[in-house]
């Protein structure tokens, strides 16, 4: 088991390194970065100075090694747009994105799991079909559009919720809902099939034969086993949410990492872009490793003998 | 002796398509082991599952009478049924490998039923569980309480299932092919265990099986089932000594007994396979495979006494005896 | 338990025929409309008329029959933009899926068929791709290289091949040891021939189902990119771009974002129904 985890860790690190190199190359795609950085009114001297300051006159490999070396010590460079250390920039924005992702995931699970359980309990009948219809429609709606519609309804007409900024918990309600909403169809279907599988299993039959209560059968016996694949998928979805938060953050003007990335792309602030890609990939890697641990926690069969 | 479980005219069908049980009657007396024996597909498992309502939504169950200690089980609400199940009537199943929840420990699964029906402290329930595990022959029972099902072998798991079923000291244990999925040696152990427990605890057992050897070993009474109904039933010794239904005779002939057949003689077999009975089917379900069938077999047949008093459902006269096993007598060659 | 019911673990909203029919009608209908856009639009989607800004659709007050779905903030006919936008969505969806399908299938089949180091490499690539925040990367590339239809299709095509690869790999692995493959090998067929004539046709069904899912995904992703200003460049009438441009006016004229959003929803729904119907009809199980 230790060996397995070690191998997975090594693979994950290899993947992270690969991703970082990719993102590094990607930011160099747009031709001469020095020119983009310098702006429209730069003189040749300015451009040359920038080139020297940002290592842009060195061969790519050297640039990468310099960057990687500094990154390992936590120095992710400096954003020339914000005139701040990238690491500090990201650190200040990260809590918002993580909060958004966390609440969004919680919202998704709160919506998806009951829907899935209901569908499973009424398998083949009208409630099941209704849930399926709901998830099918939900999958077809672009999340940013849903966000806008919600803004109109709840922000303008009903005036229940604020539509931008991060002043209070209320500011997170709509963004988190929209973020979670996109994960609901997949999670609900997974819950449904997992619950159906569990409810028709032999051990649930045994539980019924023991005269256990309905709540115990569904909530304790069935759900516990159905939850195992849900957790893995949810973790991956969470990673996706963090990456996809860029849209929600820009719509609701939440100053998280996603918003930062969007601004930086607009300004060709490649130090920031690279750092954000690195961060998100690392988070993803950590998440997948975590799901292995979580799986072992939930399923005793996967633990050390 | 009081009838613990009295089933009369049980009918179970699925989705209106398949008549799995067509008018089964069975009486289980207190303190005895009654075997329900038949091939795969005859409806014996369905019968067992229908008692505790474990068949699922698509099954339609009806009966003239399905009484436990005189109470009509069909009238019970689901809630009343769940109070009865696991407490007065317990059940164990064929597949010990999958009948326990892989996510919870043995101890917790054994304790939960007891806690539900008897209440009290968890520690007390676990103590009782440990004692029962010891009773069913499991070594280091305290250790087992904390283990998970996947850490135990099939035989051990089946013992756990039995111990779990006994937590609330039930009157009746329904065992659905408890030894079929186990090794032969383990089978014998489990059967011995069941017999011992029955004696010690006054347990009544309804044992479902397809294996006549099991019947011979443990059952005081036996009901032979075919195509959804009981074709012969009575005390085991009587039925085995003088079976009158051609199916029962066929089953017995299939068993190799040393000395009965001369070397080179073919082992008996029953041609054909168990049919699926459509609804509305009337008469003996065996008639298409029976060498002795005649038009009278297509009419509804009641159970009637055989020569020595046990019951049989057949148009052949009581006391009928065939010739040598390989002889297929034609109809009415039979001595009166 | 002896109840003889086949239980479908994968949910089906409607029977296969109905889904195929409905999905086919929707997608087909939109495709036809897109194709005939020049004929039926009645207006040039790029023609601005600043005297006719933000005219509402005909069913609302202030609307008329001249511009059936009204006009946008630059006076461009909304119906025309919607129809031409359908072209863009379909084009991007199909183009991206073609590209990603080729890449993913090639990788997946290679990994599944050859196993060993090749498979290790393929798995590594798939994991790496999954670790990339796709939206962010797509945005960054388009932002740095410049936005155009080609760039969007290429970028998305280079990003969305993972599901193809996973499914191609798994199904190839399932059939690579089957008898007919061994027979072909024994008969001396070249690897290339085996791949083309034995493996591919048998994984085609699964790939087809994945393809429908991917088309829908590509369309939605392009909308996101365009919405953020880093997708299809204006003045092209991408639906995402229309929503983005309209959001400044949506509080007064909600229809301006409702209409393209609904159109997108209908299209994606149709594609998903088609894919689900295919999945049922072909009896394919995908996670």
Short description:
The complex is a heterotrimer of chains A (305), B (336) and C (287). Chain A has 305 residues and is mainly α.
Q: Any key phrases for this structure?
A:
heterotrimer; A: 305 residues; 2 strands; globular; C: 287 residues; mainly alpha; MetI-like fold; elongated
Q: What is the helical fraction of chain A, as a range of percent? A: over 70%
Question: Would you list the SSEs of chain A in sequence order as H and E?
Answer: HHHHEEHHHHHHHHH
| End-to-end C-alpha gap of chain A | 10 Å
State the major sheet of chain A: 2 strands, antiparallel
Radius of gyration of chain C: 22 Å
Radius of gyration of chain A: 24 Å
Number of strands of chain A: 2
CATH topology annotation of chain C: MetI-like fold
Mean pLDDT of chain A: 83
CATH homologous superfamily classification of chain C? MetI-like
For the biggest sheet of chain C, the summary is:
none
Beta-strand percent range of chain A:
under 5%
CATH uppermost class of chain C: Mainly Alpha
Question: What coarse outline of chain A follows from CA principal-axis ratios?
Answer: globular
Which structural class should the secondary elements of chain C be placed in? mainly alpha
Count of runs of 4 or more consecutive helical residues of chain C: 11
Specify the overall morphology of chain C.
Answer: elongated
What's the layout of helices and strands?
The complex is a heterotrimer of chains A (305), B (336) and C (287).
Chain A: H1 2-27, H2 33-38, H3 44-53, H4 60-72, E1 78-79, E2 84-85, H5 86-121, H6 126-140, H7 143-157, H8 170-181, H9 184-199, H10 202-209, H11 214-251, H12 257-266, H13 270-298
Antiparallel strand pairs in A: 1-2
Helix pairs in contact in A: 1-13, 5-6, 5-8, 5-9, 5-11, 6-9, 7-8, 8-11, 9-11, 10-11, 11-12, 11-13, 12-13
Chain B: E1 3-14, E2 18-29, E3 33-37, H1 44-51, E4 59-62, E5 65-68, E6 71-72, H2 78-84, E7 89-92, H3 106-118, H4 122-135, H5 141-145, H6 154-165, E8 172-176, H7 184-201, E9 204-209, H8 212-218, E10 221-226, E11 229-235, H9 236-241, H10 246-254, E12 304-305, E13 311-312
Parallel strand pairs in B: 3-9, 3-10, 7-8, 8-9
Antiparallel strand pairs in B: 1-2, 1-4, 1-5, 5-6, 10-11, 11-13, 12-13
Chain C: H1 16-35, H2 37-41, H3 78-114, H4 116-131, H5 134-145, H6 149-159, H7 162-175, H8 179-186, H9 191-227, H10 239-246, H11 255-282
